[in-house]
Amino acid sequence: MRIDKFLKNSRLIKRRSVAKEVADKGRIQINGKLAKSSNTVKTGDLVKVQFGNHTIEFKVNELQESTKKEDAEKMYEIISDERKI
User: Fold this and answer.
1) What highest taxon heads this organism's lineage (predicted)?
2) Conformational region of residue 73, where left means phi above 0, alpha means psi within -120 to 50, and beta covers everything else
3) For residue 53, what are the β-bridge partners?
4) If you count DSSP H runs as helices and E runs as strands, how many of each does the chain have, helices first?
């Protein structure tokens, strides 16, 4: 699954266009490598996303084409969540 679609389906980012923009600005890493919006993500991958002063790192647990709000959190496991002041 594309990283921009995963971020939208997991509800970490609300819109796919925003997820694509974040990826294309070089703010997403998959397993330590810079990712573009078209890069694929697999179960077990470690993803790091930087939103300005907020950085979140998570592990991909499962891939779902469509999710309900309750099921979205099952798609990932947060490893670190940092805010710089």
Assistant:
1) Bacteria
2) alpha
3) none
4) 3, 5
* Alpha-carbon span 79 to 61, nearest angstrom: 12
One DSSP character per residue, 29-59 reads EETTEE--TT-B--TT-EEEEEETTEEEEEE
Domains and CATH numbers, the chain: 3-83 (3.10.290.10)
How far is Cα 1 from Cα 56, in angstroms, rounded to an integer? Answer: 20
pLDDT per residue as tens digits for the range 46-83:
999 998 888 999 999 888 887 778 778 888 999 998 88
Residues 6+ apart with CB under 8 A from 44: 59, 60
